[in-house]
Amino acid sequence: GSVETMWYFKKLYPSPFFNRKKRSSATMRVGLAFMSMASTVMGMSRIDVHNSEGSKISNLQYSMFFETEINFGSEGGMYGELVWNRDFEVLGRGTVTTESKYQKKDPSADVKRSEMELLQDFKLSMKDMSRQYIADPPPPVGDDFKPWTTTGKATAAISTVSAPYLTNPHVLAVNTTGNGDGVTNPGYWGMNLPNATTFDVSLFVKSDNVTSLTLQLRCGTKVTASHTFDVNTTWTLQESYITTNNHTSCSDGNLFIYPHQEGVIYLDHVSAFPKDSVNGIFRPDLFKYLSDFKPGF
Q1: Per-residue confidence of the chain (297 residues) as pLDDT tens digits?
Q2: Which of 139, 181, 187, 286 could form a disulfide with 191 if both were Cys (CB 3.0 to 4.6 A apart)?
Q3: DSSP conformational letter for 147
Q4: How many angstroms separate the CA atoms of 70 and 200, rounded?
């Protein structure tokens, strides 16, 4: 509910932190944290600073930290998934209406209320708004499916007509001619595709008129691994292991999907994971670097 949270606080505290056109989501989170901290300090706490030596800390006590949503520390980093925006939920969410029946008509009146009253009311408001979002979600932004792109004469759009999971309502509808056009994903600044490496590829797919499609891992336009899947009229999880060939290797690869027949296919949860991922989750190369660091905690 970051979108809903931003709306509520934007109404309470007009601030440039909430101008989404000029500030990143990370900056807005910092703004929220700063206001929360400032409110606590000014209203409830006192800080005394003394110029004295504190407790000694061993020079052997060190650790590591990475932020999952800043600089792609997790997705695009430690997390082994190669496909960026694999479930079409990173973008294409639409916008939350500002005239929700669950939202306050005059949030500025809250400035006269106590902090505890504000906090309690905020929690209740978020619950109600979440229920409304699930029951009556905003319309999708049809062309907002970056970094996916279409090839040839194919067209694509975000759709909420049907999805394999109700909690992830956005899917990609792809209309193709059946002549080799489709959609491609570049991963996070290019996919690392070493030669002779096995990947676990999978996707949810359905179509009323397409009966098969091919998924490829490519270096540029050169195919290094591929598999053909059947397509049913109901949502079906298709999965296979594919291995890159011995003669092609690249760090700027891409994933390409093309249907074999003319028509519309619906895609969701498109994934490509290295088979040798640590515990099925982490990139083995980065995990080894961090493990060799031998952090103290």
Answers
A1: 333 333 333 344 443 333 333 333 444 444 444 444 444 444 567 887 777 777 777 777 777 777 777 778 888 888 999 999 999 988 544 444 444 443 444 445 545 556 666 666 666 566 665 555 555 666 777 788 999 999 999 999 999 999 999 888 899 999 999 999 999 999 999 999 999 999 999 999 999 999 999 999 999 999 999 999 999 999 999 999 999 998 889 999 999 999 999 999 999 999 999 999 999 899 888 889 888 887 776
A2: 187
A3: T
A4: 27
Q: At CB < 8 A and 24+ separation, what contacts does 93-101 make?
A: 93/3, 93/138, 93/140, 93/141, 93/170, 94/137, 94/138, 94/139, 94/140, 94/141, 95/3, 95/138, 96/3, 96/4, 96/7, 96/129, 96/133, 96/138, 97/138, 98/7, 100/129, 100/132, 101/132
Which residues is 174 bridged to in the sheet?
156, 265
Whether pTM exceeds 0.85: no
Q: How far apart are CA 214 and CA 260, in angstroms?
A: 8
- Is residue 142 classed as helix, strand or coil in its secondary structure? coil
**Amino acid at the residue 85:** N
SS3 of the chain: helix, strand, coil, percent, to 5: 25, 25, 50
- Alpha-carbon distance of 92 to 11, in angstroms, equals 24
Q: Are 176 and 263 in contact (CB under 8 A)?
A: yes
Q: Which residue has the tokens 């067209």?
A: 155
Cα–Cα distance measured from residue 241 to residue 165, given in angstroms and rounded to the nearest whole number: 24
Q: DSSP secondary-structure letter at 178?
A: S
CA distance 138 to 232: 29
Residue type, 249: S
Q: CA 187 → CA 59, 68, 184, 256, distances in Å?
A: 39, 17, 9, 11
Between CA 218 and CA 187 the distance in angstroms is: 12
